[in-house]
Structures are given as structure tokens and as C-alpha cells.
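I trust your eye. Have a critical look at both lines of this record:
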Amino acid sequence: MPAALLVRFRPAGPWRLGPDDGARHRTASVLHSDALYSAITIAMRDLGWIEEWLGVTAESSDVGVRLTSCYPYTGRLLMIEPPRSLWPLAQSGKLRWKAARLVPVSVIPSLIANEVLQEGSWAVDPVSECLLPVTKNGPMHPPFRVVRRRLAPVDRMSGASESTTDAACLQFAPASGMWFAATFATEEIKTVWLDRMRAACRLLADSGIGGGRSRGWGRSEEPRFETPQDLTRMLTGTAASNGGESAWWLLSLFSPGAADDVDWKRGNYRITIRSGRTETATSWGELKARVNMISEGSVVLSGTQPLGASRNIAADGAAHPVYRSGIAVAIAIPWRDSRRLPWMGAEEPATVTAAPDLAVGDVAVGEVAVGEVAEVKPVESGWDEPAVVDELGAAEEVLVEQDEPTVLDEPAAGEANLIEEDSEALEETVVGEESALEEPPVEEPPVEEPPAIEPPVQEPPAEAPPVNEPEALEEELHERKEEPLV
């Protein structure tokens, strides 16, 4: 693959990346390549290079500059959406691999080589959905946290506010941010557009990317730039696929062009709906037409590298075109068919013989086809009930008919009656008939009544000697004096 420019944004505040459904209480963790292309196009317009930029990208049959989607990073650890044909790994322990949507770039060579990852060395962050390495101090901190901010419009004249709204955003950890790569078709194009791309990224760092830019969201410090000589080697560890059948791992959104010959009956891909609003002086905030596109991380099979195309989704009578970038950035990886086998002999679903409908227009959410497995059952044919259920029922009947009582050895004389009675009772229980044996009555233990508690007997108080009898008191004292001392 030709040389590339690696850009790292270092956020100086919250970022809001709108999700596919546009919900304000949720935010995306990946800035799709079409939204990144729109942001860079606006920056090129402000810098005075809009005509040249469109001529080398959207309006060119031989695209010179391609953009990946923008993924998070933490420290030197770049996160990316792994190939769907290689991820998630099979569940073998306590760690849920499928809970991680983004994995470090360093994991990709191990996935391609079909190596086993040690569960004790990795952890999945449930908020960011990132697979993080475990160090001696515990798992590495995730690149971001999802935070909800409450917003209230305030009247500048009266200072009053009537309503509040909530908006979700990404709050990045220290030494974390977002990264993307731009590839150049030739060295001549790289010489012309390398510095221009750097200037556009610096402008976006000051003006902001994503939602909430009027509140200061989406801004970053001075971006950091790297120029890897081979993006394929940096991500996969090898310069090209080593023998065998190859597939194409998408690092960006993909809209098939006329020159793309993709085998839609195979592969492992997912379709997403993309929309948005325009940001121009003539039509500010107008809703864009929705487009179906192949999402990042998908794996498609094609004889040549997928190129993609940009679609003009401007409304009729618009002053200028509005492009939805479907230009692909794809890397060759070995193809490994991970399609699940049919369940117990059930009929194979019908295969797709044509490309998925990726045309522009209003598409209902229910019409989106998830291409995790490229074989899809047509809606009109319906699913046939698997015949294996009837076969299982017939097998049970055969087993019941062939089940003969086991012949026991002759017991001793003292045990014959006991064994015969037990076997008869067992047969009656299995067949389900009522048993003729009467159950012996169960003797209930006698209930002992608790002893009655007798009330305490109160003794009458001792009678005190009458005080008004001095003679008796003198006689008692006289008797005590006459007693001999011991």
C-alpha cells in the first residue's frame, strides 16, 4: 500500500459524535469516514482548496486521497474495528470477547495468524467497548467515558430559562484521543497534499469536529502527525497476504462503485444507514438523503481491491453538489470462512445472487439487511420447518417400542418377593397406569401439647411484730441475754 499520513487529535474538551439513529442521549465512539470527509472538505473550502480537493477525491475516477474512519486511542495504543471474519473469538472462559467492539492494532497480527489470546492478559471495558491489555497495576485505562451534559437555553435579556435538554458526549482520558489515516495513490499526490492535509487538520483542531461546536466541543490541541511507509504492514504485521485466498478488510465506510466486482454471496459484512444535515450558506441544516453503506470492519471478497465511490445526494435544484463519501480504504487479509453450519440438517437458506441495495433514498429501518453472513433467506419464500423434529419424534417412538424389560438374575429365596414387587411397581410407573398397590397409611407422630404455664404464687408478706407490745419485746431480750456465750 502507498505511503500514508497518520493524524492524532488530542481533544481539549468533550466530543460529540452523532450515532446512526441521531439520538441525543447516545453518542458514537467512531467518527465515520463520510463525516470525516465532510469536515475536511469544509476545512479545504475555508483554506481555498475546495476545487482541487474535489477533483482528487469525489469527482475523480482515480481517487488520489483516501480517508479511514476516525478511531480512539490511548497512549501509544491505537484502537480499531477488527475484521468481522476473525472477531469475536470463540467463547472459552470467563472473558466475553464479543463485548469488545474495538481492539488494539497489535492484536490484528495474532488474529490473522489464528493465535490464541491469553484471557489473563486482556480485559474488556463495558463503557467504551474496548479490549484493553492488563498490566501489573491492572487493566489500562480506557480512552474515554460517556458523559451526559444538561443544556439549558438562557435568555440574554431576562436571564430566564424554560426548558433543559440532555446531550451525550465523549470525555477523553489523559493521553487519549482520536486517530485516522489518509493514504495517497502516488508520490506526486503525496507531495502536493501532505502539507495541505496537515493544514486542514490544524484548522479542524481549532474549529472543532462533530456536534456542539458552538459550545466549544470537538476541539483539540495541536495534532500529531506520523508518516508510516506502509499502512498494511503497520496494521497487520506483513506487507501483503501470504498465499491462499485473500479478502479485503474495510477501514472505512464503503459504497460500491461501477468498477467494483464484489462477491456478495460470500464475505462477512454489515450494512449501516447514513444520514445527516447539510452545512452550507444556502441550505443550512437540511436533512440529507439516507444511504445504505457497508460499515467498517466488514470483510468482502473481490478479485481486485475495492475502490468505492462518492454519491451526490443533493436535493433537486440545489446550488451545488453534496457528496456522501463511500471511498474505501481496504487491506488484504487471508480469508477464513467462519460461517456457521446449518442446524441438524436444516435446509440451507437461499443465497444472494445480486449486490445489496445501496441506492440513495428513503429506506425504512426494517429494510436494513445485516450481512454478518452473506447468505440471506428471501422474505417471500419463508422458512421451512426442519424435518429433523419429526425424525426425532419417530426415533422416540421406536425406542419406546423396542424397550424390553431387563432380565434379572434369579434372586435368593429371601429376596424374590421384594424384587418382583419393585419391578412391577417400576413398570407401572413407566407406562403411566395407576398402581394397584395401596399405599400404607402414614402414621402421624403424636402431637405433644405444651405444658400449661402456671401463674406464680405470691406469698403473703411476713407479719411484722406489733410495735405496741413492749412486754413481749422485753421478755425476748431477756431470753437472749440468758443464752450462754460460746
Observations:
- Residues 4-152+165-367 form one domain.
